[in-house]
Amino acid sequence: MKKYYLLLLLCGSLAAQAQTVTVTDKAEEKPISNVLIINQKKDKQAVTDSKGKADLSDFADTDTLLIRHAGYMEQRYLKSQLAAAGSVWLTEKVINLEEIVFSANKFAEARTDLPNKIETVDARRIAFYNPQNTGDLLRQTGHVFVQTSQMGGSSPVLRGFEASRVLLVVDGVRMNNAIYRSGHLQNVITLDPNVLEKAEVVFGPGSVIYGSDALGGVMHFFTRNPEFSADGKFRTSGSAFTRVSSANSEWTGNAIVNLAAGKWASLTSITHKHFGEQRAGSVYPRGYENIWARPVFPAFINGRDTALVNSNPNLQRWSGYSQLDLLQKIAFQPHEDNRFMLNVQYSTTSDLPRTDRYGEYDNRGLPRWAVWDYGPQKRLLASLRADFLGETEFYDKASVILAWQNIFESRITRRFGAANRTHREETVNVFSVNADMIKDIGDRNEIRYGLEMAHNDVQSVAYNINVRNQARTPASTRYPDGGSQTQSFALYLTHAWEMGKSRQVVFSQGLRYQYITLNARFVERSFYPFPFDRAEQRNNAFTGNMGLAWNANSGWRLSALLSSGFRSPNVDDLGKIFDSTPGNVILPNPNIKPEYVYNAEMTVSKNVQDRVFAEVTGFHSWFTNALVVRNSQFNGQDSVMYDNRKSRVQMLTNANRAVVYGVQATLKAQLADWLAFQSNLTWTRGRVTSEGVPLDHIPPLYGQTSLTATRKKLRAEFWAQYNGWKRRADFSPSGEDNLQYATPDGMPAWLTLNLRTAYQLNRWLQLQGGIDNITDRHYRIFASGISAPGRNFYATLRVVF
């Protein structure tokens, strides 16, 4: 009798197990949560949990079940087949039109409801891209152009706008501060790509939501949040990886640990990177053989500067650096409608050699510089965020962020053969408050509103150190030596209206008011006898947008957007003293005015049964009061002495008018369930129309094309990246395009072929490998002063626990 009883228990247990299915990613063998399983009548459904499991007991054996997830291709099975198999594998799809984005209006919404051009990349794809830094990540999307002056630098360009004219945001806190310069900027590398949950790029002016600086667009980076324990029990999980690569002798290691309980959770991430000297390719553009070779490099030996012969001219000496990134988040959720998050991020580097400057030679063939480094670049962010859910009279959802940022930057320079090494150091403290709310008004209308306040304090010091006797003497500071401060206050309101019976049309509008002040004091007059001792600005602006998005049942989609952007001059614009290019020095101009952009764009797309997707966006921006570098005079003289060298005087000046226009195009195709095709192309042109010359920072035609194959446990992508010619006549006369680092004819076109793979060894281990620049082409990205890596082999081992 006991035997029969045990047999019945076993059969019951097997029957219960047969009612459960596990949904798994085909390439990575990882469970997929939030997968919807629904029958054809749509009267019953199940959803997978965090372990990818779903209960099928409510379905009849004869039901046909649809398995759906926004990021994966749909599958369909009979319930009896699914129950018998006990598991199902899903393939990631290349066409994802159900994507939810946060960056456009700071709250979750469907991308198809927005008129903006938005591109996203999630944590799974970031891990597959295997980027060395966040600039590398942006470049690999194929949608963002990225300039580099040194290996420890990446300066993203959105629609011809760069540096302080595009806005960086991390976890709701704006990174742009009072010393973000209009030239090329490397600050994006202080964001660790290995801890990102998602990155979103909003193209076009974003000043209504984000205020000053968002002329070309907004790049919003979301770091991973701690995960709570579903059952309330204390649990530990995490991941780690190590990566090596050949072209710059990279070694990177990362570890992430998540501690979870029912009401609190903690996430800790540590990343360390070390890079050696970067080797460029051996195959030069035809007709420009060895033009970027480095024949000699500087060294300080026995108390004197020496030019050493470079045994490998394609090895770019003085390019290596190291970096440490730390993140700590602690989340507390006392109630399901309230959550509080402490977010601390810290990034620091070694000295960052300006590789472009180390590649400059005088008429004797000797290096111009013995030292030209950015000193250790440090970024500290501490923020406290509170999120409130639940309908009230004033909001349905609300968030408040209090943040403090401390940034330290420095520049260390010494000319070849000179005794004095100059140190210029800047410290910036930023205090900010953001409050954002969303409220449904009836069934079809939604408003979002909020405020932002920020205070920037800039302190700048400078000194010389004699390398022979270590004597210390004063030097001219980069920014006003009496200190500089900016304050800003802003209010915004946006509205979205779902129109028509089927709600296929969404009409959105927005308005923002911003008031910004700047105060700077010039104390020391011995270096430059400025005719002023104080510079002040009081600027305010209204910015707005209006857009329409129409999603037709036929798969066609049409959107149109009118928007304006505003950028108030910061401390770098108003008070900087700097040699932008050899023989030129930029001096302060306290009379500059804010920049404005007025933008019109239209997007047309077609989706054919989730198998083929094509999209084209055309945009035209009218740029007024554009700040450009122009030759000028100081106290009636066109030249001054700067760092013991006679240099031509230049100043930032408001050009009357400029235009930027272009086209962005995307084509995606699911060629088979296991094979996907994707291609992106961007063409941009810009002119200072009031002067009839090219606008700076305008990239050449660029794009990326890829084929991705997904099999069980394996994902492989073969991809090509390419840039068109940037002819000499299209370079800006401002010097910001760095014509001196190109060829006599401009920057040649280039194309690289690349391969990356990922193989899931088991549930816990993944092995990745790839080859970049397979043909070992020697090329430079437009406006860059360092050659791109040559043929590069890399390997990564990842573990989860």
**CATH class categorisation of the largest domain:** Mainly Beta
Question: Which sheet architecture does the biggest sheet show?
Answer: 22 strands, antiparallel, barrel
Mean pLDDT, all residues: 92
Catalogue the unreliable spans: 1-17
User: What share of residues are in beta strands?
Assistant: over 45%
Give the end-to-end Cα distance, rounded to a whole number of Å.
44 Å
> Which structural category do the helix and sheet elements fall into?
mainly beta
- CATH topology category name of the largest domain: Maltoporin, Chain A
Rg value? 28 Å
**Annotated CATH homologous superfamily of the largest domain:** TonB-dependent receptor, beta-barrel domain
Describe this structure as you would to a colleague:
Residues 1-17 have low confidence and may be disordered. A hairpin with a 2-residue loop joins strand 14 (167-170) and strand 15 (173-174). The chain has seven helices and 51 strands. It has 801 residues and is mostly beta strands. The protein folds into two domains: 17-90, Carboxypeptidase-like, regulatory domain (Immunoglobulin-like, Sandwich), CATH 2.60.40; 223-282 and 294-425 and 435-800, Maltoporin, Chain A (Beta Barrel). The protein has a 22-stranded antiparallel β-barrel. The protein has a five-stranded mixed beta sheet with strand order 10-16-17-14-15. It is 6% helix and 54% strand.
